[in-house]
Design brief:
The protein is built from 8 helices and 8 strands, in the order E-H-E-H-E-H-E-H-E-E-H-E-H-E-H-H. By secondary structure, the chain is an alpha/beta fold. The chain has one domain: TIM Barrel (Alpha-Beta Barrel), CATH 3.20.20.70. The protein has an 8-stranded parallel β-sheet. Helix 4 links the parallel strand 4 and strand 5. The longest helix has 14 residues. Bound molecules: D-xylitol-5-phosphate and zinc ion. Zinc ion (ZN) binds next to strand 2.
């Protein structure tokens, strides 16, 4: 199980120090990039993410919740092993966005909102590295996990297995100490958590507790 703590619930006045407290325990640092158009919230973009990219060696997981990912993805500085996910609902030609991201040297993630069925992504699975299944509506940290996502995770896992692909399954939204074991059992390979890590008084201890609960 890989962990991708999301900085969305971090203290944005101390982003670097906060990220450093969990960097060595994390497979990725997850950045929620929002444009106020695809989702009703605005966060950070390339200026902030690139400044931090220089200073951290943990791979970055850029979750682009934006309307024109092909236009903005090239503005992020990528290191080998970084992942860029864009939303299928945001684009008309997902294959060309996949190629754009691949050409940047990043791993490619395809993100699905809670109501987008897995079968809509079926034909793209062979072209991507990660399928990001949202378990809350994209836009904000601190929402409750949508229980139906468990079925969707199982379906996605089954489809990936049937096709003998190596696509990793990432689950994002509402993950906490109570539900992480079930999410892992359903088939998640990468879990994202903002509130359950950076919303806690001691993020590092909170992440360690989540890691323990995931494998309990
Ligand atoms: C929501 C973001 C999530 C969010 C998760 O739009 O994509 O990554 O930060 O926050 P929690 O873990 O608090 O649900
Ligand atoms: Zn996210």
């Amino acid at each position: 199980m890989k962990f991708a703590p999301s900085l969305l619930a971090a203290d944005f006045g101390r982003l670097l120090e906060t990220a450093q407290t969990v960097a060595d325990l994390s497979a990725y640092l997850h950045w929620d990039v929002m444009d106020g158009h695809f989702v009703p919230n605005l966060t950070v973009g390339p200026v902030v993410v690139n400044a931090l990219r220089e200073k951290l060696s943990t791979p970055f997981d850029l979750h682009l919740m934006i309307s024109e990912p092909h236009k903005y993805a090239p503005q992020f500085h990528i290191k080998p092993g970084d992942l860029i996910s864009f939303h299928m609902e945001a684009v008309r030609d997902p294959v060309s966005v996949i190629e754009t991201v691949r050409d940047l040297g990043a791993r490619v993630g395809l993100a699905l909102k809670p109501r987008t069925p897995v079968r809509e992504a079926e034909l793209l699975l062979s072209r991507i590295d990660v399928l990001l299944v949202m378990s809350v509506e994209p836009g904000f940290a601190g929402q409750s996990f949508i229980p139906e996502t468990l079925t969707k995770i199982r379906q996605a896992k089954e489809l990936i297995h049937q096709k003998r692909l190596r696509v990793e399954l990432e689950v994002d939204g509402g993950v906490n100490l109570q539900n992480i074991r079930e999410i892992t059992r359903a088939g998640a390979d990468i879990v994202v958590a903002a509130s359950a890590v950076f919303g806690q008084e001691h993020p590092r201890a909170a992440l360690e507790a989540l890691q323990q609960a995931a494998s309990a």
